């Protein structure tokens, strides 16, 4: 059995690796030999996929932000299509990565309509106010959507899609995290230190638009609370030099680590973080957080003023229950002053921390039960089985 998986960016690589492990487990139980070929990253490769190309470093979010990655993305897309043309798989799994995946899906629909396509973690077209065209495009390229958000499942069902809610895959991953005590010991954090996790970037553009405001805020927080120490887990090693230079420029007491994100998150008293998968990890660990995001100002202006795009929430925590559990500081509100205010409130006001953690528990009830990746794998293999019987 051959399955092709296509995804991009750091978060897609993580989700792809979790799915691959589950697929291998399920096929082993059934006695099948499984080959997985993929667009992804190092985590997927370590899980057993043969990579056609590494896509973790060519992702972006926004119109102008995407311009430097157009040619690399087209090259990867052509590689994938050339492979699929020569070696049609038994099934294709698309994970987020909307632009390239829609191109791959459209090619399959035209040339290999018999190959089933599953969209696992569909693009968040269900969040934005301008969704009709993108929703139709997503639905047109796949036979089944495996939804990870309850609202995502409800939305696609209302549009007539064949969708199954499986829960969020991060639930399965939380058992791997150390306790706060163990994490602090592993990182060498003393009892009198206030550890704060800073998570500024998993994309190149975020180093430009997020890192300066985060570090300005961190500089002031450090001056107000001298016992603070910042921990910055690298999403990609290539960001180390830039981040180290900025730490020195801002005079921060900060430690940059590789391959220890779980320890940093588990040990933290607070996180100041970009939007992304990490928001849910923090919520599942009950770590208070302030979510920050900025785009190229022209991208944001065109999207909101010309295209009239609106969205109720940006972070996965708030999207899970469609409720403002964590503070979101987006674009104009993502200022050092606002970050400082939100962070100090959570650090110094026990009631604010407690209320956020109470709200986290509500979110936990909407995220799904353990075994998400195994459920997704079973759904995928059942689709393959149905296809072979036709």
3D architecture notes:
It is a single chain. The chain has helices at 9-30, 42-47, 70-86, 98-111, 132-140, 150-158, 170-173, 180-187, 204-209, 211-224, 240-250, 261-267, 277-284, 297-306, 316-321, 336-348, 350-364, 372-389, and strands at residues 2-6, 35-40, 50-54, 91-94, 117-120, 144-147, 163-165, 194-199, 228-233, 254-257, 270-274, 289-293, 328-330. The chain starts with a strand and ends with a helix. With 390 residues, it is α/β, with parallel strands linked by helices. The protein has two domains: 2-167 and 369-389, Glycogen Phosphorylase B (Rossmann fold), CATH 3.40.50.2000; 174-364, 3-Layer(aba) Sandwich (Rossmann fold), CATH 3.40.50. It has a seven-stranded parallel beta sheet, with helices on both faces.
Summarize the helices and strands and which ones pair or pack.
Blueprint: E1 2-6, H1 9-30, E2 35-40, H2 42-47, E3 50-54, H3 70-86, E4 91-94, H4 98-111, E5 117-120, H5 132-140, E6 144-147, H6 150-158, E7 163-165, H7 170-173, H8 180-187, E8 194-199, H9 204-209, H10 211-224, E9 228-233, H11 240-250, E10 254-257, H12 261-267, E11 270-274, H13 277-284, E12 289-293, H14 297-306, H15 316-321, E13 328-330, H16 336-348, H17 350-364, H18 372-389
Parallel strand pairs: 1-2, 1-4, 2-3, 4-5, 5-6, 6-7, 8-9, 8-11, 9-10, 11-12, 12-13
């Amino acid at each position: 059995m051959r399955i092709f998986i296509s995804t991009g960016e750091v978060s897609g690589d993580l989700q792809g690796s979790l799915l691959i492990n589950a697929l291998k487990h399920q096929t082993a139980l059934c006695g099948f030999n499984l080959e997985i070929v993929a667009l992804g990253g190092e985590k997927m490769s370590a899980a057993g996929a043969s990579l056609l190309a590494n896509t973790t470093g060519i992702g972006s979010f926004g119109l102008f932000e995407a311009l430097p990655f157009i040619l690399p993305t087209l090259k990867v897309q052509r590689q994938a299509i050339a492979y699929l043309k020569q070696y049609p798989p038994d099934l294709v799994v698309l994970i987020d990565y909307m632009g390239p995946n829609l191109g791959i899906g459209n090619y399959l629909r035209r040339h290999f309509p018999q190959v089933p396509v599953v969209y696992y973690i569909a693009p968040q077209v269900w969040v934005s106010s301008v969704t009709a065209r993108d929703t139709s495009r997503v639905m047109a390229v796949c036979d089944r959507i495996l939804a990870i958000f309850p609202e995502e499942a409800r939305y696609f069902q209302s549009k007539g899609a064949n969708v199954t809610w499986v829960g969020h895959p991060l639930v399965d991953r939380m058992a791997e995290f150390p306790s706060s005590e163990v994490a602090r010991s592993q990182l060498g954090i003393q009892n009198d230190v206030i550890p704060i996790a800073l998570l500024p970037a998993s994309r190149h553009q975020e180093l430009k638009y997020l890192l300066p405001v985060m570090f300005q805020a961190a500089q002031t927080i450090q001056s107000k609370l001298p016992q603070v120490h910042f921990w910055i887990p690298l999403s990609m090693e290539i960001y180390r030099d830039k981040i180290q230079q900025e730490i020195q420029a801002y005079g921060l007491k900060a430690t940059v680590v590789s391959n220890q994100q779980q320890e940093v998150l588990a040990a933290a008293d607070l996180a100041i973080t970009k939007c992304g998968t990490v928001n849910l990890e923090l919520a599942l660990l009950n770590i208070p957080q302030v979510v920050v995001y900025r785009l190229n100002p022209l991208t944001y202006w065109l999207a909101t003023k010309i295209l009239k795009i609106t969205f109720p929430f940006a972070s996965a925590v708030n999207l899970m229950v469609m409720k403002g559990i964590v503070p979101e500081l987006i674009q104009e509100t993502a200022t050092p002053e606002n970050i400082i205010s939100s962070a100090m409130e959570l650090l110094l006001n026990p009631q604010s921390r407690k209320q956020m953690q109470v709200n986290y528990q509500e979110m936990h009830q909407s995220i799904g039960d353990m075994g998400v990746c195994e459920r997704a794998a079973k759904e995928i293999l059942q689709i393959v089985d149905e296809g072979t019987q036709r």
